[in-house]
Design a protein that fits this description.
The chain is built from eight helices and five strands. With 178 residues, the chain is an alpha/beta fold. Strands 3-2-1-4-5 form a five-stranded mixed beta sheet.
Length: 178
């Protein structure tokens, strides 16, 4: 479903990272075929709970701080980006592991990492991953291959990564029919 909604006709090796609330699923996909799949028990809820515990605040406040600041360097001196970055170390290591597995299998490197899932909205996550991994990282857009009224663009852009799987599932019969 993720491949249908986010990849389209791209034949190059891509790493899809579905960063959800409780788990993160990674798949190397080439020409619509998944070659490596990996799941990690780390998601946005883990980050929120760790922030709440570390800063001694309630979970609702921790979630708001995570969504407001994320990995932003603009709030110099804040513990929030540093604590989130510490939590993301596990995820980055897993992504590197998958990329390494792929490099052992193929001489063609992964061209880019495509993020989806509600936790991919974390402010500055794309920039952080690009710098850390040294590869192109983009936020997936499941609406790119869907027709919709132009006035809905701002609303759909706000929720796009959360709907990647749903849009891909809805596209199943459309893609197979063509």
């Amino acid at each position: 479903a993720l491949e249908r909604s986010l990849v389209g006709h791209d034949k190059s090796p891509l790493l899809l990272v579905d960063f959800g609330a409780t788990t993160t699923i990674m798949s190397v996909v080439v020409a619509s075929v998944p070659f490596i799949n990996r799941s990690v028990n780390l998601g946005g809820d883990t980050i929120t709970k760790t922030l709440a515990t570390g800063l001694n605040i309630d979970v609702v406040r921790a979630e708001q701080l995570k969504r407001d600041f994320g990995l932003s360097e603009e709030i110099g001196g804040s513990q929030i980006p540093r604590r989130i970055e510490f939590m993301l170390t596990t995820l980055v290591n897993e992504i590197r592991y998958v990329l390494n597995l792929w490099s052992q299998e193929s001489s063609i490197p992964v061209e880019k990492v495509v993020l989806s899932g509600g936790s991919s909205f974390l402010p500055s996550l794309v920039l952080y991953l690009e710098r850390t991994l040294g590869t192109k990282v983009i936020l997936g857009d499941p609406w790119a291959r869907v027709m919709y009224p132009e006035e809905l663009r701002p609303v759909l852009a706000e929720v796009a990564p959360r709907f990647s799987v749903s849009v891909g599932l809805a596209m199943r019969d459309i893609i197979h029919a063509s």
